[in-house]
Amino acid sequence: MALDEGVLDSVSNSNFKTLAEQVAVNAAAHQNRLSILAESSLGQILNTLNSLDPTEASAISGVVNSDLAKALGDLGGAVAGIQQMMKGAQTTIPVTTGK
Questions:
Q1: What is the CB-side half-sphere exposure of residue 81 using CA atoms within 13 A?
Q2: How far apart are CA 50 and CA 44, in angstroms?
Q3: CA-to-CA distance for 2 and 99, rounded, in angstroms?
């Protein structure tokens, strides 16, 4: 006894739908795995960038603390302050009349 064409079409359509949905599910799962991998990689990169080796941190600190331009700027500011105080000390007191 041969199967009805309607039954064959129904089974064929059901199989096609199942396969099509499986592709979509696999694609979503793959995208999810890629997203997790990207987040993990980004986290490791940021962790590497944010952590300093003690030797490297010491070298950076030494460069910052021995900045000649900063030292000269601080010295110039101190000299300018002293000059302002000296100008104030050289000013004569105004004469006032007692009327």
A1: 6
A2: 10
A3: 135
Question: For the chain, which ranges sit under pLDDT 70?
Answer: 1, 64, 98-99
The answer to whether 76 and 68 are in contact (CB under 8 A) is: no
| pTM, two decimal places | 0.40
The tokens 């460069």 sit on which residue? 63
Tokens 């696999």 label which residue?
26
State the amino acid at position 87 in one-letter form.
K
Domain edges within the chain: 7-84
What pLDDT, on the 0 to 100 scale, is given for residue 98? 64
- Name, in order, each residue with C-beta under 8 angstroms of 52's C-beta and a sequence gap of 6 or more: 60
